[in-house]
Amino acid sequence: MEVCKKALRNNARIVRGLLQPENKLMAVVKSNAYGHGLVETASLLSKNSDWLGVDNLDEAILLRQDNIKSPILVMGYTPAERFQEAIAHDLRLTIYDTAGLKNIFTNYSLPASSRLRRGEQTTHYKLHVKIDTGMSRQGVTLADLPKFLSLLRSNLNRLKIEGVFTHFANADNLEDRSYPNLQLANFKKALAIIGAAGIKPAIRHASATTGLFTMSEAQFDMARIGIAFYGLWPSIKFASKFKNFGLSPTLNWKTRVAQIKKIKKGTPVGYGITERVKKDSTIAILPVGYYDGYFRSLSSAGEVLVGGRRCRILGRISMNLSVIDISNTKNAKVWDEVVLIGGQGLENITAEELAEKAGTISYEVVSRINPLLPRIYL
What we know:
By secondary structure, the chain is α/β, with parallel strands linked by helices.
């Protein structure tokens, strides 16, 4: 895995330029920074953003241990018994339901604020409230919000509600804007209810990458940007519409030719004998498979680059090995570079292309690349 630091910085500059000058920028580095390497990528992006966003407490603690001092929001699930760890590492947590709050207040010790001596600091939990505006995922619904806020208000001596946010289900829909608009309206209703309850969060945030490009009115105080930093898109169609913004993919995924052999017409390749070569062929074996994150669904469909030419995957992808047809590649030899994602010569294979062939999205293609594979930052 090669990660281009210049492309990361340039993408961050472009994203920053899309924000209103007063708005903050959160770099989302969850899930091993979408496969790019958590600590190294976060260290780079922390210099070009105001906040960092992760999925879980362990990711956040790794960043603190690397001496990254940016505000960090843990957006996913945090067990109540680990809330004290969040305070110890100055982390922000997400809360999103009444049952979870009751569990914390009933079973775990929260620090109560008191008169402080000079030089002492408060130990409030810094929290962001997640609102479910129509994704039916993590978050407080509008119907449950009054009850949730009532419980919150009775414990504000121990909690600091720093932010409130939501997430759009289909902001990447370029034809029908009705549902994103409905969610935006619901979020504004939630903000009004929260304000009427006497709670005044300093940071309101709703837009992730797709919302940033399609819903400028939803920036509020901060945008949470993930995939755009990495120069990737939710679909080829979306990429085509916004390609003029100049975002560049930051990741190249490479392997080597491990073996070359010639096989006769009709010879089967791989598990299940799902494919036989249609003519005498030269094949190459690659030391990469689905354990590494190269999708098994790319069997007999994916392509890689060898010597600047596209070479098709033959048969089923194995756990640790794949086979390609190099019959049309001149002078290929063992140890030649093979590109799985990225460019070679005049050809280029994008994460979006692999995603389309594998029946998924680019986010999954890169985030599922095995974290044990070495990342090299150039």
